[in-house]
Amino acid sequence: MNGWLVAATAVLAAGLGPVVWGVSTGPFDRRVVAQNFGTSVVCLVMLLLAQAYSRPAYDDLALVLAVLGPAGTLVYARLLAEDLEGDPPHANALTVLAALATVGVVVAACVATDPGRATVKLVLIGVLLVAGNVIASRALSGGFPSDEGAAK
Questions:
Q1: Domain limits at 88?
Q2: Residue 149 has pLDDT above 60, yes or no
Q3: C or N: which end of the chain has fewer Cβ atoms within 10 Å?
Q4: Based on the structure, what is the number of domains in the chain?
Q5: Beta carbons of 72 and 37 less than 8 angstroms apart
């Protein structure tokens, strides 16, 4: 067992429990936030497992998940807009936690990977995951604040 497997196990153990609890209980605003966080956890585990087993194909799975995960959350946000309108979920802490974890895993994987296309792919996955998570979290909480008050 190497350090990458230990890190993947730690991320999975620390992230999967809250995700399963959030998805299976409570109001659906918490369920949608947990689903969004779950895609980040699984994507990070895939990146760590790619390094642990020296399988670049796992990076491809992480890339697909980094694109489709936030897109799925945006679909939920659109379909459940009326239900989320009264009391939108606030996932600021989870968004920051997911972004920090993504940066940590991607930087560690980039250091372990030889410079080249694989490093560029890892950086792209990290950027997509952080940007998608931020955009999906903002969409769930009602969008970005408008500047209408400042214009008046």
A1: 3-143
A2: no
A3: C
A4: 1
A5: no
Q: What percent of the chain is predicted at pLDDT more than 70?
A: 89
pLDDT bin (cut points 50, 70, 90) of residue 145 is low
In the structure encoding, which two tokens stand for residue 21, read together? Answer: 């609890």
DSSP 25: S
What DSSP designation does 80 have? T
Between the CA atoms of 90, 95, 96 and 98, what dihedral angle is there, to the nearest 10 degrees? 150
Name the residue with tokens 């080249």: 116
Q: How far apart are CA 23 and CA 73, in angstroms?
A: 13
* Within a domain: 152: no
- Going by the DSSP 8-state scheme, the letter that residue 107 receives in this structure is H
> Do the beta carbons of residue 113 and residue 59 sit within 8 Å?
no
In single-letter form, the type of residue at position 54 comes to S
* Residue 50 located in a structural domain: yes
Q: Copy the structure tokens of residue 92.
A: 């600021």
Percentage of residues in the chain having pLDDT higher than 90: 40
Closest CA relative to residue 125, chosen from 111, 137, 112, 109: 109
